[in-house]
Amino acid sequence: MRRFMAFIMGAIMGGLVGATLALLLAPSSGTELRTQMQERVEGLREEILAAAAERRTELEEQLAALRAPQKSGEA
After folding, report:
1. pLDDT tens-digit map of 60-74
2. What is the spatial distance between Cα 14 and Cα 20, in angstroms, rounded to a whole number?
3. Using CA atoms, how far apart are residues 1 and 12, in angstroms rounded to an integer?
4. Model-level pTM?
5. Residue 21 vs residues 24, 33, 48: alpha-carbon distances, Å
6. Angstrom distances, CA of residue 42 to CA of 2, 49, 59
7. Domain-by-domain residue ranges, the chain?
8. DSSP label at 28?
C-alpha cells in the first residue's frame, strides 16, 4: 500500500511540475496565464478532495465491518 501511495504522490507531483512548466512556457499573456493556472489549481483541488472523500468512505466502511459483531460459527 505504501508503494502505491508513493506512486500516486509522485504522479501528482510530476503532474503539477509538468503543468506549471507548460503554463510558464506557453505563449500567452500574464492575465491569461494566471487565469489558466487558477482554473487548473482549482480543478486539481476538487479532484484531490473528491479522491480523499472517496477513500475516507471506503475506510469508514472497512472500519464498520471490522467493528461489527461476528456471528457465532464465523471466523
Report:
1. 999 999 998 887 655
2. 10
3. 17
4. 0.52
5. 5, 11, 21
6. 27, 10, 26
7. 30-59
8. -
